[in-house]
Design a protein that fits this description.
The protein is of the alpha/beta class. Among the domains are: 72 residues, no CATH class; 106 residues, no CATH class. Helix content is 35%, strand content 19%. It contains 14 helices and twelve strands. An eight-stranded mixed sheet has the order 6-7-8-3-9-10-12-11, with helices on both faces. Helix 4 packs across helix 5, helix 5 crosses helix 7 and helix 13 crosses helix 14. The longest helix is centred in the middle third of the chain and has 18 residues. It is globular.
Length: 375
């Protein structure tokens, strides 16, 4: 910690028994002329310092809305928020605007998905970084704040930071603008960093550089990271745990390895089967999820995914369309699923996986056979 970085109230949370971020039964609704939009419903999760949580789902699943609530960014007059959000032990819901301004960028920061739109086109990059730093360090001189901005650009890999600090956003490439956004998010060394689609519209090489940068900075600052994305490749690279969202609800949660290798919710199966994998066998094929995400003005009854689910016929009666499944334990400890299927793991291994990755299905079958063989 440099001499310019003052201690923050959230620093004490590092020694707290409670995870740094705790979200409990979060519900976010937006009143509109057409009705009430149920953007997020009953969402709960937690995140410890030094860990990364990946939140995945299609557009409109509630990923960004829930994370913006963590920063208190929703207009109180245009939204209805219930539940609890605690950041470093501080309750966010109902917190004064003055206290929220003190926490934003300092205790918790966000990297927005469109760097060009997030950066002001009329101001130099360095001025925007200086403003982000000076806001939380009013006693710092202009010279010290500029030095901090140059150091931040250098840390995220911007070449010649002492001269590029005076450039405008349009003078940077897409990948470099994203690095500037990361520098802005980390300039005050926040304990929690929310990255909303940080690699959108970036080529594969730059994407890998951004992910490596985030991992290096996390190791340096021991920050907690929320990675919001629809790219499961990014999740596999970055996340310790994964939260799958659909129609504003959590539908599956578990360790990254468990979710990617043994998913137990048909929606997660659809996400995995619709993504190309260069390491898969030549017999593999992509299987898209049928239909479109539901309207959150009038979500389906029962399980919100049932109109698109290819396996609802395996559930007795009309349970899927009439009763909302609860989050129940999966095959391993800490794995939760929201599904009425009785043996979803067996269905995935025996029916779903052979469809889009026959090679991996055969390997799993051989492993299972070896484990069950008499010794």
């Amino acid at each position: 910690m440099t001499a310019l970085t003052a201690p923050r109230p959230g620093d004490a949370a590092a020694n707290s028994p409670e995870p740094y971020l705790v979200v409990e039964d979060l519900t976010v609704k937006f009143p509109t002329e057409n009705g009430l939009v149920n953007a997020v419903t009953g969402l709960s999760y937690s995140l410890e310092l030094g860990k990364t949580l990946g939140i995945v789902g299609e557009s409109g699943s509630g990923k960004s809305v829930s994370s913006m609530a963590v920063l208190g960014l929703h207009d109180e007059k245009r939204s209805r928020i219930q539940g609890s959000i605690r950041v470093g032990g501080t309750e966010i819901i109902g917190l004064s605007q003055k206290r929220l301004n003190q926490m934003r960028g300092n205790d918790v920061a966000m990297i927005f998905q469109d760097a060009l739109a997030a950066l002001h086109p009329f101001y130099r990059v360095g001025d925007q970084l200086v403003e982000a730093f000076a806001l939380h360090h009013p006693s710092a001189s202009k010279r010290d704040a500029r030095k901090k901005a140059i150091e931040a650009l250098d840390r995220v890999g911007i070449p010649q930071p002492d001269s590029r600090v005076d450039d405008f956003p349009h003078q940077f490439s897409g990948g470099m603008r994203q690095r500037v956004m990361i520098a802005m998010g980390l300039i005050n060394s926040p304990n929690l960093l929310i990255a909303d689609e940080p690699t959108t519209a970036l080529d594969v090489t730059v994407q890998a550089q951004i992910l490596d940068l985030l991992q290096d900075l996390q190791r340096e600052f021991n920050s907690a990271i929320i990675m919001i994305t629809h790219d499961l490749g990014v999740i596999a690279e970055m996340a310790d745990d994964v939260l799958v969202m659909y129609a504003g609800r959590a539908v599956e949660y578990g360790s990254c390895k468990e979710i990617l290798s043994h998913p137990e919710m048909p929606y997660t199966w659809g996400l995995l089967s619709s993504v190309p994998d260069v390491t898969a066998s030549t017999d593999s094929r992509l299987i898209p999820i049928p239909g479109t995400p539901p309207s959150l003005l009038d979500p389906p009854t029962g399980c919100a995914f049932h109109p698109r689910c290819l396996h609802k016929d395996k559930v007795p009666g009309n349970l899927c369309s009439t009763e909302l499944p609860m989050l129940t334990p999966g095959r391993h400890q800490g794995h939760l699923k929201r599904c009425h299927l009785a043996d979803s793991d067996a269905i995935y291994v025996q029916e779903v996986l052979p469809e889009f990755d026959p090679g991996l299905a055969a390997e799993l079958a051989d492993t299972t056979t070896d484990d069950e063989a008499p010794r």
